[in-house]
Amino acid sequence: MIDVLIAGAGPAGLMLACELRLAGVGVAVVERDAQRPAYCRGFTLNARSLDLLARRGLAAPLIAEGWPVPHAAFGSLPVTLGLAGTFTGHPYTLGIPQTRVEEHLEQQAIRTGADVRRGQELQALEQTGDAVIATVNGERLRAAYVVGCDGGRSTVRKRAGINFPGTDAGMHWLLGDVELADPEALPYGPTAGPAGTVVVIPRPGYVRILAEDPQPSTPATLEALQSAVDQTLGRHVELVRPRWVSRFGDAARQADRYVHGRVILAGDAAHIHPPAGAIGVNVALDDAFNLGWKLAATVHGTAPDHLLESYHTERHAAGSRVLAATRAQTLLGNAGAELQPLVEMLTRVAAHPDGNRAFAEVLTGLDTRYDMPGGGDHPWVGRLCPDLAPGATDGGPVLLDLSGTGAMRPWSDRVRVIEASCPGQPELRAVLLRPDGHVAWALVDGDDSPEQALRYWSGL
């Protein structure tokens, strides 16, 4: 029997496979596509994703080949959201194709022992008392748990009977990776025309063009994109040599349960939203980091009873915030005259240094804070901890002794204790980190102990 069967070899599925293998869990990943698609949907890793990846030593090679920009992706207000001074060790957005992120993660998953099976499609599943029986390419596979990371049209979600409430798309756009016959015909960025706006994003050797789709029921082709661009601008701009043409809408949906017995959802299988803010890949990675250690402990039989359900509690709430933020950006980006007073007010707030930083942290998830019973009231509790001891979060809980006196050594028989320093927070004496790097407990003064937090999160 397979410990965990993952459907989908995108960012969520591959990151989850890496996390599970780090904990010694047997993993098989089945992916319908025999080859990774030649086209690329996403091009950014945000600051929070880089912070998470750095805790597993996975950020450096991506940073080495990407291009950092010191602001967050946000196109709905005429303000640049700077990341300097935000709560992160990586105050920039990294431009890197999603395909390269997936290649790195797949190599890491295979290196650590994951069984990645391409050209294998999950077609059906049924839960029994102690397993899930999945049908893959006609073969019945038995797994302790199945995780659906298989996109917005998730077969796993549908076969498990998990509801996917939300709103249908009210607007549609065509997206194409093409070349301009005349490279000077359109500038990079938005160009307004009599029927809307066309956006041109530079890519190596080509451009990505976005235009509102007047006929969303027709096939997404170069001809459809050409017609939409010409109609929007009121003039002809010739598009040639298409690499990929697709369409997307502003639908927003979220699974009502991320955990249903032995079936779990992550990434787009759990939530879909407008692409504003370029957050999709990043939320998928965030889901996987949150789920990996919890599912591993559950498979090993060491998890407290509530632990796996806490994945739903934490990430469903985070997903709701993402849906709200992306929908808000879409509304602002398409604001008519009646919303201009709101746009002007938010622009003033975003232009203020404190407002600018707050916007950046909210839109990138840097403000993410989970409820931590028994964690104390230090501002770091619940948040992703700065990297005080590089390499410390290798998949297990870590107790950082910041006292300089070895006061936490008596706990070393229950949790890994590392002596570290934190000059920026001299009042902190100790910090307990969950395996995902979030602060579960912090000691400032008194004789409090990590006992309650350790039992709650690790059963130790």
Automatic annotation (TrEMBL):
Tell me the keywords, alphabetical order: FAD, Flavoprotein
Where does this protein have coiled-coil stretches? Answer: none
Q: Name one Pfam family in it.
A: FAD_binding_3
Q: Which cofactor does it need?
A: FAD
FAD-binding domain mapped to chain residues: 2-324
Protein name (Swiss-Prot/TrEMBL): FAD-dependent oxidoreductase
Source organism (scientific name): Actinoplanes couchii
